User: What shape does this take?
Amino acid sequence: MNCADIKANLEKVQSAISDAERLSGRKTGSVCLLAVSKFHPVSSVIAALNAGQILFGENRVQEAYSKFSEVFTSFPSAELHIIGTLQKNKVGRAVEICSCIESVDSLDLIQEIQKRCAAKNKTIRILFEYHTGEESKSGFTSFESLLEAAAYCAEGHAPRVIPAGFMTMAPFTQDEKAVRKSFSTLRITAERIRQMFPALDLCTLSMGMSGDYRIAIEEGSTEVRIGTAIFGEREYPAE
Assistant: This one.
């Protein structure tokens, strides 16, 4: 996809987000756009940056590291979030390249992030990923395990890990009720955790992708993760 197409797509998506904010009674600008650049080349990321997009998301650490090491040399203001399932052996490289890990799904992972950040004298923001859709296999699978992780951070055991909110993936279905339930579940869960740990700044709700972000905004999303609607179909690497 060429630069003009990416710029036009970004404008369409931003306009649609603004419309969804207005229709939901939300304040203009209350929802930020994370452009998911997984399996898209550096040239597409640069085209989006030239069109004014700053925030990007990548699923795979190795791809993100290779791609954004190049991007940051020319665009130091670009910001990268890791949004895919993160294995503990990839944490070290992840904290080198990103400012936020949105897919934190266990206390063990928090402890590993703390360890790697301490070694690099760095702090990093995280989102707690909560399992709300039957088809999704990632995320904290119980409120109790999520509560334990939040408490661990609130008690100061991981000072280099900064909890910033929550993330979820809705089930891949045409059933709007199921999608809406997934998003409302995260919103309600987030409200409970915020009340229990007011010292934590858990303002981010990362939910909604290309096919369901309008519903997510209606349910309180503050960040939507959109790839296909911006960059087109993914350019999968050859096996």
User: Anything to note?
Assistant: The first strand starts at residue 32 and ends at 36.
